Amino acid sequence: MIKINLLREEMRKPPSLMWQFWVYIVSVILTIGIVGFLYWNQENTISKLKRENSHLDREIKLYTKYEKLVKQLEAKIAEIERRKAVIKKLGSDRDDVVRFLSLLVVVIPEDKVWLENISYSRRNVKIVGYAKNDETVVDLINNLEATPYIGRDRVNLIRTQTVNYARLHLKRFELTFKFGTFSEILARKTKQR
Q1: CATH number for the domain harbouring residue 186
Q2: Smallest Cα–Cα separation from 103: which of 32, 43, 185, 28?
């Protein structure tokens, strides 16, 4: 069986036009108010950011000037440090020639060796001289190698030859070696510890 509803449904009244008009007006006003508030808020945020941006630009210009000054000062400091290092190096090793000559006075056997020529260039030393015999040349080489300024196996005997000099048979010799600086010796001893 089929059920059929024969009762009429209650008809709903449509809202009145006046009511619709006022709802429309209120929603338009609310929309305009919300849009106006959002516009005002964005304008305030933008003006605040512009002020902050201009303030930051002024600070950047100020700090750029200081940055240039700092770079100049750092360059000057680096130049001073470089000069200081050169002066320190020159000051620490400036007495090398004096040390070398005083070392020669100590290591040369007395009345057995005579020096003809000494050349000292950038710590490279070449000695040309005369000795009474080969043993004296060997003694001189051993004495030089025993010093901390030269070290073992660093003296090179270039040549020896027998010559007659004032009715004496002498050995003419040529030696080369590298003379160490005082600062190098200190560095070596520090490493050994």
Answers
A1: 3.30.1360.100
A2: 185
- Joined tokens for residue 114: 């005579």
Write down which residue in 64, 93, 122 finishes a domain: 93
- Domain range for 66: 16-93
- Rounded to whole angstroms, the Cα distance separating 143 from 136 reads 10
Residue 5 lies in a domain: no
Instruction: Determine the residue type at 156.
Output: N
- pLDDT range class, residue 41, cuts 50, 70, 90: very high
Cα distance between residue 130 and residue 179, in whole Å: 21
Per residue in 49-82, pLDDT (tens digit) is 999 999 999 999 888 888 999 999 999 999 999 9
Asked if 181 and 112 sit in the same domain, the reply is yes
């709903």: which residue's tokens? 12
Per-residue pLDDT at 157: 87
- Taking the whole predicted model, whether its pTM rises above 0.90 is answered as no
